[in-house]
Amino acid sequence: MEITAPSPFAIEYEAALMILHFQHETDGRFAAAALHVQHALDDPVAFERAVGCPVTPNSGWSGISIPLDAWVLPLRRRDPILRQMLEGHANALLARLPARSGVAADAQRTLTSRVAGGDTRIDSIARHIAMSARTLQRKLAEEGTSFQKLLDDARREAAGTYLRESALAIGEIAYLLGYSEPAPFHRAFKRWYATTPEAFRSR
Fold this sequence. Notes:
Blueprint: H1 8-25, E1 34-36, H2 44-51, E2 55-56, E3 63-65, H3 80-96, H4 102-114, H5 122-128, H6 133-142, H7 147-165, H8 170-176, H9 182-193, H10 197-202
Helix pairs in contact: 3-4, 4-7
């Protein structure tokens, strides 16, 4: 399970939060196999004690290795209503995007399900549909599109939906869609809708 965050502290915080949350939801039965971070740690031993698994600093990726048996542990709480809502939201976004076929359709479906707060990097999307990033780029080019175009389309539709249908602050929407600062989101939004997010929401 890869972790993307804007700073080393945020990666450490999110990783610890996820592990502790899973432990709580499984009555202490969950245990990660390992935690990897791409940066150096001030006190790796203390961090290992906190998360209850081996920690590898200066790794090639940031994420949690989860053993297979942990995936089938029963959770204390299940929220089918939330799951139905999220799936419905993703399906609604997908319906508004240009109809595609082949690999582009697979990539588009995956991006749509992850565009709000998920991992939308090309390496992760390619792994999900069982190919390398280079192969994905080549196949998308053969189908007349690109990964950046698919991501841009997914972000555009999600941004419009959140501004129309949610009370999230514009900065929160920008962060959810993968922008580290509001300014790049504002520029992208004006390119998509020829207006500002504030004016769009006030309509």
